[in-house]
């Protein structure tokens, strides 16, 4: 039976999930370490120092115990790259050459509709700013400034550059007249709320506007440059549902085809550098959003390139930033080279002063290796015309050379160092070998953290269990309770989920207390997700009588999922939901450490506990209704209204 999700055929989603292993997908963005049957790392969706982000290979899902984010490979790409469900599926399908065709089908989820409205608003705002720059008196000074910087009409159109007038409500009025919800626009980062709380104002005023696009080419943010001198020079859109500066690279959408063709990306610091390089014929240039390079940036580049040329400004700040970027790029599996620009010169200035041809020949083609760059940067801090300066430089340079894995490379750089500092090659080599021995020794008390996942490995199935991932085994310890089942007790009060699943103590940082009926509902759903027989049993005896609305919805979706004659598949089931709240709930339930074995007695105990809570709540509501009717008969309408609000609260619970 074929169904469709978000206008995408089910068969396409199945194929995408089958071809995109969760560990390899997440491993591009997160450094994962194997821990038993799980992979763990620092969550990319919130700041943390202790890893609570977990990937389960046999279930093909991820879940963070810290922030609750969870889902399958498609969901991960949606969140990490700010994509809608259809966009993520389309990109992932293209990456593995799966034919993609969107058809009419199930309506988009509320989240996708909100994303669609914001994308439309950003598209119209971009065109509005572009029009103001090129066709109005307001934009004339900005247009003259750009042309003076060598950015002509062709480049302005290519990069869709615009101008925001120095007025308070130009964009606000534009959006309001087109019936956009201004509160939603403020949430999406296009406008700002007034400090008084009364109405909205333009976020960007008196600035040249550079649209920032996602990898699909859709505008998701702006960078506004002040016209003339002032502070801050650049202002970016705030982070929003669409935009996370740690996961977006300027011009990646336009540069991606050239990057893939050349297998090389050129990483700049600023938008002006990218644009100037484009005019010079360098179409594989990208830049970060005024922030440091992140692991997510490096992983994005790795999807299209094998090599990165870091081309930062020639001042100390630019060179230091390049030094920090090198290990991040190398850890992502990229080869790295560094452009050697003259001191104090940025790429934009170099191109305008020397021309594009010379930039390509002397900067791009003559880029240095990372070792040569590190040594050149070190050399600037020493006086090589003095003996002490030469010796100090040699001491600083040797650890850099010693870290090289290739004996041939080490010898080349040691010979260069020998001629620079006037010390024999053999002496330097001996010192280098001593440093290598020290570097190979583990620090006192240092423990082996276990094998880390750094992408797919040649000749095998990666480092999380080879080719045979299998279904895994949740273990037989713990069970559902110390005596096997709830025992039909009514006096459970609050129960910690790990009291029913002791293994949870080792995996959940927060010991959240759950009512007994919720623990029972989670246990049933856990078993239903992995066994169709359990789902049929629960459907016949409990149906939709779950007390927790989200769990009732999940159960209903599960009944429909299995009605399509599908086998248990947590990852595929999550893809069918397209509801962020339910996706997180299912991911949390799948990660529970309960035993997989079950009995009808255990299921009956769970159902009894759930129904007892439902009966308790129902009887309470009925009593309240009787009280409300008595109050109405007595003419006490204020009391009746108060009781009515209590009834509504009970029904919501």
Automatic annotation (TrEMBL):
Co-factor remark: Binds 1 zinc ion per monomer.
Organism in which the protein naturally occurs: Saccharibacillus alkalitolerans
Protein name (record): DNA primase
Pfam families in the record: DnaB_bind (PF10410), DNAG_N (PF08275), Toprim_2 (PF13155), Zn_ribbon_DnaG (PF01807)
Family affiliation: Belongs to the DnaG primase family.
Annotated region (Disordered), positions in chain: 439-480
Annotated keywords: DNA replication, DNA-binding, DNA-directed RNA polymerase, Magnesium, Metal-binding, Nucleotidyltransferase, Primosome, Transcription, Transferase, Zinc, Zinc-finger
Catalytic activity as recorded in UniProt: ssDNA + n NTP = ssDNA/pppN(pN)n-1 hybrid + (n-1) diphosphate
Role, per record: RNA polymerase that catalyzes the synthesis of short RNA molecules used as primers for DNA polymerase during DNA replication.
Superkingdom, taxonomy of origin: Bacteria
Names of required cofactors: Zn(2+)
